[in-house]
Specification:
By secondary structure, chain A is mainly α. Chain A has 14 helices and four strands. In chain A, helix 5 packs antiparallel against helix 6 and helix 6 crosses helix 7. In chain B, a hairpin with a 3-residue loop joins strand 7 and strand 8. In chain B, helix 3 runs antiparallel to helix 4. Classes of the chains: A mainly alpha, B mainly alpha. Chain B: It is found in: Cell inner membrane; Cell membrane.
Chain lengths: ~325, ~475
């Protein structure tokens, strides 16, 4: 069996789980500037307070998993993406502590609001920059990163950073649609609409730009007959976009979030198709990066048993805290 | 390698400082949350069994402190999981196949468990009822202990590697997972660290209890927590001395150079002395200003006054750890440990005399000792980590060969950022924790769990009662 491929898929699943889950709580923080009142902000924060920690654990699984099963890719990508990784970690610190600190102080509450907003913004931006930096390729010599430490910084990687910020804002807004009512929810609908347009524009631009810039990617997308089913992705993108905009227009509660996830899934698949079979694009394939088989199988046994259990109790937590976080009730005891 | 104003040696030193700094900060939080999570499980269990409201008050009191500390532990922990790659990429490439899966298991068995049930533990009482809530508390407590299991297995493997081979790419590969996980120093290290976490917590709880007793001896909640903490000190501190001794003997067997540095033994000698004081001089290979007891080190390490004890002269100079650091960190750790034993015994005697809550001097001492666990944990960490230098994987991979090809400027800039952010963010967190600790535990607000809440309000209720 091709354990490396199985693991590549599992890592991809955990990265997507991370994006789907932490995406909305990072995005919701970045929407704070549009919600000025303490009351709205409290409701927003409380809608994710019980689950944010679990959401972020997927990021640890992504990092830890990469170290475990693709140590070579981990040890090349981390130095290559040094600065955005560090920036992301620092951003996550500022936003993570805001959950607890914010309610511990009256005088500095707005300072921790700011820490929540900027920390989330920096984390999201850094993640997008990493994505862009991977797409543009990474220089490797002798099992080690060989580029400079500003190689990641191009207008393209910054563009990807902005795209992820907008994308997370969309997830945050549609999460708010699901969890709130009244004026707060109405505002979330409007923000979601704008973010949706923005994200789709970004995805379309990257999809057109990448094949134009990169011959290898172009060949993958345009070579017959593989291109036939690949070309269905833009079609799916169009369908999902229309579905999302209609769901927002019709003021549906839950489906806008799911349609938004659909947008991410399409973009994510496009990314996977573009870089496959590389983990470090154009330098190290997933098979070259893979740890020896017995490391892969040892952890795979655990993942096979534990991931379903993790999905079960994570699902349980979401179920316990299901429903609307009500804004129409005074929050002071 | 990137062109740089600084040398590779500078980059290496900065990377080491960065790792030491971020992990020393991080270890404070788990050392505390492992203990507090178990304490919360005990308190909630006692409340469910006895229905004594004092346990419920204490549970709520410490839950809020736990929430802040846990949050800090999570965010500083995420840094650690990426730090291996950013600054130690050669190590990650070589050791990833061995330690990676162990850390993968830590995420799968511990981190998700803690995070998954933390939400219910903090915000879910109204929604799930007492029994399920207690279950969530237990899961969080168990999760913290499982996490310690895996990460100490990783650390122990780096200290006493076993069950591995080397492949053609120069990576360590696993021959036997059982030998890897249960490597020779692991059981001792795990026991020593878990007890350290419990003791650290016991002295924090005892210190907070003592603070409130000094203000009001009749405070029921303060009495209860002080009493529980002093029981822990009495029972666990001596046990820790015993386990620490076993750990030391194990180290003597597998890392004799480390023990030689701890003891300040430059020369191999019989009737080896125990230095009570001294300044080890790495250059001259002598202990300056020594105050020593002849033969005592032989007695402790070999259980025989006349036994010969291996000194650093048995190892090439380039395999010596920085002796003075290890020597002094060891003395700080042991000194604090012995003080903990003394406080525990003293409290035991006062309890027997029926004066546990009356002895202001005991309370003052307990208050001063409140942070002693943290200091001891970090000192112990320094002993074991500096003591195994120059190796990152003992006897196999030198620390100097393990770092990333990152220029000193990059490592230095990120180090400065970490230092600034950590002091700012965790400093603020410490202030909030101290504020929570100084609130009267007997007046802890108990939310009205019986009142059914509209869906979605539970989280708000708990958060806003803080105001």
């Amino acid at each position: 069996m091709d354990y490396a491929l199985i693991w590549a898929i599992l890592i991809a699943v955990s990265v997507f789980a991370y994006v789907a889950l932490d995406g909305f709580d990072l995005g919701l923080a970045m929407l704070f500037p549009w919600f000025k009142s303490d009351r709205d902000r409290d409701v927003m924060m409380n809608s994710v307070a019980p689950v944010w920690d679990g959401n972020e654990t997927w990021l640890v699984l992504g990092g830890g998993g990469l170290l475990a099963v693709f140590p070579l890719a981990y040890s090349v990508l981390m130095p290559a993406l040094y600065m955005p990784v560090i920036a992301m970690l620092l951003g996550l610190i500022f936003r993570g502590v805001a959950f607890e600190y914010r309610f511990k102080t009256k005088t500095n509450k707005h300072l921790w609001d700011l820490s929540f907003i900027l920390g989330s913004l920096v984390a999201a931006l850094s993640q997008g920059i990493m994505l862009g930096a991977m797409l543009q390729g990474i220089e490797v010599v002798d099992r080690a990163y060989a580029g400079g430490w500003f190689d990641w910084l191009t207008w393209f990687s910054l563009f990807c950073g902005v795209a992820v910020v907008i994308g997370y804002a969309l997830l945050g807004a549609t999460w708010l649609v699901l969890k709130t009512t009244g004026p707060l929810q109405q505002k979330a609908y409007r923000l979601a609409f704008k973010a949706a347009i923005g994200l789709v524009t970004c995805i379309a631009f990257v999809s057109l730009y990448l094949p134009w810039r990169d011959a290898a990617i172009a060949e993958r997308w345009f070579s017959f007959p593989a291109s036939l089913w690949l070309w269905s992705l833009p079609l799916v993108l169009a369908v999902v976009t229309i579905g999302l905009l209609r769901a927002l227009h019709a003021q549906r509660q839950g489906s806008p979030y799911l349609w938004s996830l659909g947008l991410f899934l399409v973009a994510f698949l496009g990314f996977a198709v573009s870089i496959f079979p590389y983990l470090v694009p154009r330098a190290i394939t997933l098979w070259q990066a893979a740890a020896p088989d017995n490391s892969l199988t040892f952890l795979l046994v655990g993942a096979a048993v534990l991931l379903p259990i993790i999905f079960a109790y994570t699902g349980y937590t979401y179920w316990v805290f299901r429903g609307k976080v009500r804004a129409d009730e005074g929050y002071h005891d | 390698m990137i062109e740089s104003l600084f040398s590779e040696a500078d980059a290496l030193l900065l990377a080491r400082i960065q790792f030491a700094f971020t992990i020393a900060f991080h270890i404070i939080f788990p050392a505390f949350t492992i203990g507090i999570a178990s304490y919360l499980a005990v308190l909630e269990g006692l409340f469910l069994r006895t229905r004594n409201p004092v346990y419920q008050k204490l549970f709520r009191f410490w839950l809020k402190i736990f929430a802040v500390a846990f949050g800090m532990g999570v965010v500083s922990g995420i840094v650690m999981s990426y730090q291996f790659g950013t600054n130690w990429s050669v190590f990650s490439d070589k050791a990833g196949p061995v330690i990676g899966p162990l850390m993968g298991y830590e995420v799968l068995t511990a981190f998700f468990l803690e995070a998954g049930f933390l939400g219910v533990m903090l915000f879910g009482m109204n929604r799930v009822g007492e029994r399920l809530h207690y279950f969530a508390t237990l899961m969080v407590a168990i999760g913290t202990a499982i996490s310690a299991f895996w990460i100490l297995s990783v650390n122990s493997w780096m200290q006493t590697p076993a069950g591995f081979g080397i492949n053609e790419a120069g990576q360590y590969i696993v021959k036997d997972w059982f030998e890897v996980i249960f490597n020779p120093s692991f059981p001792y290290r795990l026991a020593h660290m878990l007890l350290a976490a419990y003791l650290t917590t016991a002295f924090v709880v005892g210190g907070v209890g003592a603070w409130h007793l000094l203000k009001d001896r009749s405070n029921a909640a303060a009495r209860k927590m002080f009493s529980m903490a002093m029981w822990m000190a009495l029972l666990v501190a001596p046990l820790q001395v015993f386990v620490g001794d076993l750990h030391g003997l194990n180290t003597q067997q597998h890392q004799p150079a480390k023990v030689a540095a701890m003891e300040g033994h430059f020369d191999t000698q019989s009737q080896a002395p125990l230095y009570l004081f001294g300044v080890p001089n790495q250059a001259t290979a002598e202990v300056d200003y020594a105050v020593k007891i002849p033969g005592l080190a032989s007695l402790i390490l070999k259980h025989d006054v006349n036994a010969e004890v291996t000194g650093l002269d048995a190892f090439p100079r380039d395999e010596w750890p920085p002796v003075a650091v290890v020597f002094w960190a060891f003395r700080i750790m042991v000194g604090l440990g012995l003080l903990m034993v003394v406080v525990g015994l003293w409290a035991g005697i006062q309890r027997a005399r029926g004066k546990l809550y009356q002895s202001s001097w005991l309370h003052r001492s307990a208050l001063i000792m409140a942070p002693s666990g943290f200091v001891a944990v970090i000192a112990g960490w320094i002993v074991t980590e500096v003591g195994r230098q120059p190796w990152v994987i003992y006897g196999l991979l030198r620390t100097s060969d393990a770092a990333s090809p990152i220029a000193a400027e990059g490592v230095g800039a990120s180090l400065l950022a970490f230092i600034g952010v950590y002091f700012l963010v965790f400093g603020a967190g410490t202030v909030y924790i101290l504020r929570k600790m100084s609130a009267d535990p007997d007046q802890t607000h108990i939310p009205d769990y019986a009142r059914p809440t509209p869906v979605g309000m539970a989280a708000e209720r708990l958060l806003h009662e803080e105001d």
